[in-house]
């Protein structure tokens, strides 16, 4: 008897073993009916048997062994995806899903060995069965990981959004206190520390919102209005001066620099670049804004240790840090999203960003069109 026929003939027995093992894996299955658990196993086994009967080319067989989609129109991949979705919703962990497939493989092969003669044909049947199990496992793990990542991204996005309101109260309160003429010198110093810390938190929350949105596939929303790049940069410098009072930023403004951009996003872009220069560089920072015929060019340049050439391919990837921060007196380093956010904002404005770094210093160059066109753009690759 072929293994695929054996699965069909002993389906109820195999599904019973599946249900028992699934209940042992997770205490959360106590609330699940036997039908819910059995249906998952039954669907997988039926599709596995059908998959084994479908003729496949050597290329398809090799592709399955490498985890490549089979290209067979048998619905097996979709059943594996649906199985992962159900297990995720039922509270199973990823290790539980893997263990289910492992137990299913062992149960079927043990039962078949006891009930069927083996030979060259049986060996080929085992190969096809193992390929089908591996294919289903690959699709289930991939889908489970996607579902889990989406939940994490939703959580981080909701958390960041909800933190903005109380943080706004802290910032407004600090600003009011700093205007109070009766505040003691010690009170002014403490309030200034509070303001700087709250501003750092605000910037990290803003970056986290952009990151979580991009991970969920949402385009970066823009509010395009007529702006002056020189004024935007001056406002950012004032904020940098609050957070990094020991750092001098020199603004050089040349030519006509008015255009249509999202002022908040552009401010976020140059705040990230300037704060990186303040943290990792030495001495002052040059911020050069140059108006050109069809756009504006902004260069953020600083001296200090160069960025290693090996880091360039992943420099703008999320959650990546290249250099250890020198003595910053305990200043927070952020969450490793700064340059990824910069690239996201530049791409949303249909611009370009590049970096040069050597022993003489590091310079980030941003080029933006005068009119960024339609608001929003897809997130950059690599997330």
UniProtKB/TrEMBL annotation:
<dbReference type="Pfam" id="PF02518">
    <property type="entry name" value="HATPase_c"/>
</dbReference>
<dbReference type="InterPro" id="IPR003594">
    <property type="entry name" value="HATPase_dom"/>
</dbReference>
<dbReference type="GO" id="GO:0000155">
    <property type="term" value="F:phosphorelay sensor kinase activity"/>
</dbReference>
<keyword id="KW-0597">Phosphoprotein</keyword>
<keyword id="KW-0547">Nucleotide-binding</keyword>
<keyword id="KW-0418">Kinase</keyword>
<dbReference type="InterPro" id="IPR005467">
    <property type="entry name" value="His_kinase_dom"/>
</dbReference>
<keyword id="KW-0902">Two-component regulatory system</keyword>
<dbReference type="GO" id="GO:0030295">
    <property type="term" value="F:protein kinase activator activity"/>
</dbReference>
<dbReference type="GO" id="GO:0000156">
    <property type="term" value="F:phosphorelay response regulator activity"/>
</dbReference>
<dbReference type="Pfam" id="PF00512">
    <property type="entry name" value="HisKA"/>
</dbReference>
<dbReference type="InterPro" id="IPR004358">
    <property type="entry name" value="Sig_transdc_His_kin-like_C"/>
</dbReference>
<dbReference type="InterPro" id="IPR050351">
    <property type="entry name" value="BphY/WalK/GraS-like"/>
</dbReference>
<dbReference type="InterPro" id="IPR036097">
    <property type="entry name" value="HisK_dim/P_sf"/>
</dbReference>
<dbReference type="GO" id="GO:0007234">
    <property type="term" value="P:osmosensory signaling via phosphorelay pathway"/>
</dbReference>
<feature type="domain" description="Histidine kinase">
    <location>
        <begin position="158"/>
        <end position="372"/>
    </location>
</feature>
<dbReference type="InterPro" id="IPR003661">
    <property type="entry name" value="HisK_dim/P_dom"/>
</dbReference>
<dbReference type="GO" id="GO:0005524">
    <property type="term" value="F:ATP binding"/>
</dbReference>
<keyword id="KW-0808">Transferase</keyword>
<protein>
    <recommendedName>
        <fullName>histidine kinase</fullName>
        <ecNumber>2.7.13.3</ecNumber>
    </recommendedName>
</protein>
<dbReference type="InterPro" id="IPR036890">
    <property type="entry name" value="HATPase_C_sf"/>
</dbReference>
<keyword id="KW-0067">ATP-binding</keyword>
